[in-house]
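Sanity check. The docking grid for zinc ion depends on where the pocket ends up, so I'm generating a full predicted complex first rather than guessing from homology. Inputs follow.
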Amino acid sequence: MEKGYSHSRTREHRLKRNRKRLILLAIILFVAGCITFIAIKVSDNKTHAPTQELAKKTDSVSKDSSKGKVNAGANGKAVSPKSDPEVEDGAFVEKYLKQQMLGQMPDGADGKKVAYLSFDDGPSVTVTPKILDILKKQKVKATFFIVGKEADENEHTRNIIKRIVKEGHAIGNHTYSHNYKYLYPNKRVSTDHVMQDIERNNKVLKSILGPEFTTRMIRFPGGHMTWNSRDPQGMAALDKVLHQKDYHQVDWNVLTKDAEGKSKKAPALINQFIRSVKGREKAIILMHDTYGKEETAKALPQIIEFLKKQGYEFKVMK
Ligand SMILES: [Zn+2]
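Predicted complex below; grid placement will be based on this.
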């Protein structure tokens, strides 16, 4: 009996102890779970806030997008260029143009026709909205190389910048001043002045589009090729700094000559464009949307229709 009693006491004791251990374990697991949950929430807020913000901003755009999918506006870093079929990696275009200029077969030549519409020197309140209307109607995206002082001009120009991004186009940096004398004093490339002007433009764009705005795309006023031929050493030094900062400059290989020589009417621009685009597999097309470029807007629908008929797809550069 006594043995049995003692045995059952020990069993009872052991059961109690096990129950206590189980309860303790449950409490530990519960607390650990709570801590993990809180930690995940906090890190989520920290790392994904800009992306969520961006997703919210682009949501309204995706409704009227032809593919129901829109790249993350101006922020090249939020969405990998490779993940969106309408977005080209700016570094790819830079390399492609460089090899083409050197008379080499570009690595990126793959038989696929791609058109990169680009508009420099804007925004303007007279021409840019017309161009945006046409692009919307044609369901085509473009890259706008913005001049900071034009963007910062007034509420209307600032709103046009917002509209460009909202409608799914890309924004590139065309410097703040576009002033040759400042950027290229004595026809020499000034790394300091160019970089200062690029960053000043970035500040303007961030003030309009929000602090998360970034762009990797640079277009030199007058073109990289022009200043590279005048001051190759100066340009090599500048290129090094640009690449350290993950900036990529792109010129063009097709143009309408809407900013060269005498002003031309739309049919002359279209003819020039057709001559220029011939044989171009990747067509980086230079046009302008600044004041006085109404003929460019008039020519644009036919230029886009021509490209579509020729089998080009359209991409923006980021
Ligand atoms: Zn320009």
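Relevant for the grid: DSSP finds eleven helices and ten strands in the chain.
Also worth noting: Residues 1-5, 40-79 have pLDDT under 50 and may be disordered.
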